[in-house]
Amino acid sequence: GTSDPYVKFKLNGKTLYKSKVVYKNLNPVWDETVVLPIQTLDQNLWIKVYDRDLTSSDFMGSASVALTELELNRTTEQVLKLEDPNSLEDDMGVIVLNLSLAVKQGDFKRNSSFTRNLRLSESLRKNQLWNGLVTITLLEGKNMPRGGLAEIFILLKLGDQRYKSKTLCKSANPQWREQFDFHYFSDRRDMLDIEVWRKDNKKHEELLGT
């Protein structure tokens, strides 16, 4: 049959986030982004899946992630096997997440146990502390000029950080579906620059707009 699944994220028994319901689907795609505040890393994040019913919700399995396994400022894909000790099913399916860990402003001074747990990257050891993460999800383009004749790509710039999307085939409505993580420095006034470029066969590149 079908189900109407939704997901709850729990820490220390408390529900921190509940996803939308995807109706009549055993292969749901949520495509939701959530930021969960955590005080210490010595705990597990629990992901619990339920089937929404008019009167109640049926449990469809759970999985957990040890927060100490996450890397600072690096997004990793986790494919987690759902389990339910009370179910007779051998295969409860899987849930797929992209997880990353970032430090909030002020946490370095205030929360030494949190800091000790982090594998500090080079940029954190310098005085130049970034204190946040800007995640940009590049979805799609619409009615791109001359998109049918040339390949279109996007350039994202924040301060001295640059990302380039994968070059796209010739389309006026390109679909990228790519995610980029930028360091954020609260003491800088960096603007996010978004540039649209086209590339023709002669390796010639032209800026179409910003």
Automatic annotation (TrEMBL):
PANTHER family: C2 DOMAIN-CONTAINING PROTEIN, MULTIPLE C2 AND TRANSMEMBRANE DOMAIN-CONTAINING PROTEIN 2. Belongs to the MCTP family. The keyword Transmembrane helix applies. Its main location: membrane. GO terms for molecular function: calcium ion binding. The gene is Mctp2. Pfam families: C2. Residues 1-80, 114-210 form the C2 domain. InterPro entries: C2_dom, C2_domain_sf. It is found in: Membrane. It is a multi-pass membrane protein. PROSITE patterns: C2. GO terms for biological process: regulation of neurotransmitter secretion. GO terms for cellular component: synaptic vesicle membrane. Keywords: Calcium, Membrane, Metal-binding, Repeat, Transmembrane, Transmembrane helix. This is MCTP2 protein. Its cofactor is Ca(2+).
